[in-house]
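Justification of computing resources. Each target in the renewal requires a structure prediction run like the one illustrated here; the chain below, 351 residues long, is used simply to show the kind of job we budget for.
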Amino acid sequence: MKPGRTSGIRKRRTATLLALMLAILATATGNDPLGAAPLFTVPPTDSDATGTHQPLPAAGFTVSPLSQTRVWLAAHPTDPRTPALRAALGARPDALWLTGTDRDLPNLTEFLAVARSTATTPVIALYNIPGRDDGITGPTARIAAAGYRTWVDRIASTIGRTGAIVVVEPDALWLADRQYRDDHTGFDDRLATLRYAVTALHRNPGTHVYLDAGTSSGSVTPDRMAVLLRGAGASTRTGFAVNVSSFGPPAEITAYAQRIRDALMRAGVADPHYIVDTSRNGNPVWDNNTWCNPPGRKIGSAPTARPSPTAPGLDANIWVKAPGTSDGSCGVGKGSSGGDFLPGVAMAMIR
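Resulting structure tokens:
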């Protein structure tokens, strides 16, 4: 056996052992509120824990005409709320969500064309993981693994050499322990599917990939999330996203992200980086058990690459879920569907 190969095996064994120790520690110390959550882990394989981090361009993010916010504004020019909403939200870039519909590729193509014409960076969220089911609202995706991989390949091919930020699968890791408590195979498949998406997207040199890492509500500990992230392909090149579609206030979400970052470094990732969804976290007080259209929310910091002041590893504040966009028929959005733009809610958020 060649010395170089022996060294590589030792490194992988060390990384695997560290990941297992982190998972065991999280449960043994009572930090995992899931109690009997499985300690399933997938050791890092083809992800590069010490690769080169690619700084985000500082030119700004793409303002898409496809945003629910701008679609509503365009359709309601005489609504008395339109001037205030246009001033506060109309020029703020938010993400294009790709959810497995037949509009995904046409919408993506249009979004990328706007990005190229404005020399800005588009933010894209993939939300179509096989078996996605939060245990509350029921299954929302029924795609099979093979179909998902084909879908990801088409998205990656469409993005091509256009610089882009891609947030990979909100909730996929956050809910993995809950969904696959007694299903080791299903758990392994979830992480393998995420690793496939990361690898496919990274074939494009200008694509910045961030795995979703949940929020600071306490449902998953930072140490446990770090184990899940490593199993899904987090590395110095592949970052993580926190607070996507959620409401964690700045101080709280920063502490959560920094604890994940510390745990990843202990597990062998040289320099973990992350982004924060600040679209709805402007109120410093939050009942973290209320995740669906809670009242009293405010918009947070504007989308900015390389924000200042910054925290170690923070690449950007972004708006993934547009302010005033419904989480479903609940809370202050009762009677709406997920993704609907609610002008009354949006007005309350900007006041």
